[in-house]
């Protein structure tokens, strides 16, 4: 079985690569990534010599190269994580988000159709639904309207609609998943949880947008990988599945929890000007996926403790990313410049 994982040098895609290598030693896992600022191959040092792991530096918007790879490796499944995903960056400059997230997805869909791939799983986000109010009884379902509020979420919503259109027009074997906020090992250090951990450990200020009351549903990345595995192997074609962790927390609660676990002072918290178009609340109803057989294994308490312990034990990894030293590893190991 040949499985293509796009964006496998990123946070969620990278964890999924490890998950698949561990669970399915007979599968060949092909990781393609363009190694932009958030792409990090150091997380794969312990698997890069395995005969069933293959890294291919490729831009998903390069149609010629993508079609050549599909022709050469005969992929059975495509699990599409690759995306520009940092909301703040999309607010500053949205062009690369449209190019990668929309055009890149379209090219992959065309290749999937051309070479008769068994299934294309498109990994999306709950942000395509827009925002919820603070009513604890309201949740996003798969039938919620698509109402994105940032250039990033608009680009992901566009790619979702493309995937749906290819299913409806060409009867392509696809699924779409929409996850809540992920956290866990190898999370890029500019995101809320790893940023807070690294800043607290370095005795630096921890910035929080606005008043910190924005709510997110937190999902451990290991639970997300398990859900993608289930959808890949068992979900009927054309279905959309929400993946949530049943762990709603305000941003301020998340930061205070991390500070408390690390036995530090809340004086490090610094409220800063709110993000433009900052959604109030995300919350997912994962009932449809649970009926397929999935349940999250981490509650937030156990998940955040596991994550903090991982960051404590892997300070060299995230510190090198903050300092930019990991680029030297790319250049030496793969003989190319970023």
TrEMBL record:
GO terms for molecular function: dTDP-glucose 4,6-dehydratase activity. It comes from the Bacteria. One of its GO terms (biological process) is nucleotide-sugar metabolic process. It catalyses: dTDP-alpha-D-glucose = dTDP-4-dehydro-6-deoxy-alpha-D-glucose + H2O. Keywords: Lyase, NAD. Its cofactor is NAD(+). Its EC number is 4.2.1.46. NCBIfam families: dTDP_gluc_dehyt. Belongs to the NAD(P)-dependent epimerase/dehydratase family. dTDP-glucose dehydratase subfamily. This is dTDP-glucose 4,6-dehydratase.
